[in-house]
Specification:
With 319 residues, the chain is of the alpha/beta class. Helices cover 44% and strands 19% of the residues. It starts with 10 loop residues before the first helix and ends in a 10-residue tail after the last helix.
Length: 319
């Protein structure tokens, strides 16, 4: 069962206010300013009241942002300039005081029970618990759907509760003690993939809670989505080459042209397996092909650069 979209529910549907407070901090990274109010309202209606909510933004926030954040009892961490999500996430998470730090983004609306489900999924050996992502389809265009499929197909509803190799950056939480064991680099730039890799390398478990759902819709201009896909693909390749031999680097470079069809095939399998949003997937296919090609081009360039110039340092030193 998919929890309902908070924006589509009335106050009566939401039920009563939070029933108890937990030692958890919620960090909201502002990728888009417009949907921030809906995101904060959905957090207000959780069955668990967080110890604090921290909103991390940059110059994209308007002059009224402080008032909006204050109206929801949240704290604003505002950095000058235009920052990446990782650069916003790190300082905000570093200021969090909760024993658990939950991360989401402004284009997401947590479903009722989201926070409680994350917290109840912790067990011995689990360093991080994440959830699933459903698309808030109202008014969405085909490019929005394509972005959703490309970014979140691994975490689309439905999912079973299980240990996983990775978790999405817009619906994840961490045991603060396990974060601190990684050092302090993540406080300046928190890259979720790198943090997850470090935790798993240390023998810690990552847990997916299938019923901890956020409703996501991010409107990204196609040119920006292509640039973002390219950059993420290149970073993925550079991280994958850390510690790789020269022969393996060239092997990755030789296979780089297969990345786009592999990504597309994985998305197809996921959509067919769930039987959900198949029509939207087919309609958005031209945009999906464009975005996966952008990712694969970045990944290929990352492999070629690594094969030609070597280098063994992690390209994301700040996690």
């Amino acid at each position: 069962m998919i929890p309902p979209d908070p924006e589509a529910m009335s106050a009566g549907d939401m039920g009563s206010a939070s029933t108890f407070e937990a030692d958890v901090s919620v960090v909201v990274v502002v990728s888009e300013a417009a949907p921030l109010a809906a995101c904060l309202a959905a957090i207000d209606e959780q069955t668990v009241a967080p110890r604090e909510v921290i909103v991390a933004g940059d110059d994209r926030l308007g002059s009224d942002a402080a008032g909006l954040v204050g109206d929801h009892g949240a704290h604003l961490v505002r950095l000058a300039g235009m920052r990446t999500a990782e650069a916003l996430r790190g300082p905000a998470a570093g200021r969090a005081r909760g024993a658990v730090v939950a991360l989401t983004e402004s284009h997401c609306r947590p479903a009722p029970g989201w926070l409680q489900t994350l917290l109840e999924s912790y067990e011995p050996g689990v360093a991080a618990v994440g959830g699933t992502v459903e698309h808030a389809a109202e008014g969405a265009g085909l490019a929005d759907w394509a972005f959703h499929f490309c970014d979140y197909h691994w975490f689309q509803v439905p999912q079973s509760d299980r240990d996983v190799p990775n978790l999405t950056d817009c619906n994840v939480s961490y045991d603060r003690g396990r974060l601190d064991s990684l050092g302090t680099a993540w406080r300046s730039s928190f890259h979720v993939w790198s943090v997850n890799d470090r935790l798993r390398a240390g023998g810690q478990r990552l847990r997916l809670a299938g019923h901890a759902v956020v409703w996501q819709r991010r409107t990204v201009p196609p040119a920006e989505a292509m640039r973002e896909s390219f950059a993420h693909g290149r970073l993925f390749a550079r991280r994958r080459l850390v510690g790789a031999s020269g022969a393996r680097r060239w092997m990755y470079a030789a296979g780089g042209g297969l990345v786009a069809p592999l990504l597309l095939g994985r998305m197809c399998r996921r959509v067919v397996a769930t039987g959900r949003h198949l029509g939207w997937f087919v309609a958005a296919l031209p945009w999906i092909v464009l975005y996966t090609t952008s990712w694969s081009s970045g990944e290929l360039l990352g492999y070629i650069g690594g094969a030609l110039f070597g280098g063994s340092k992690d390209p994301q030193p700040a996690l």
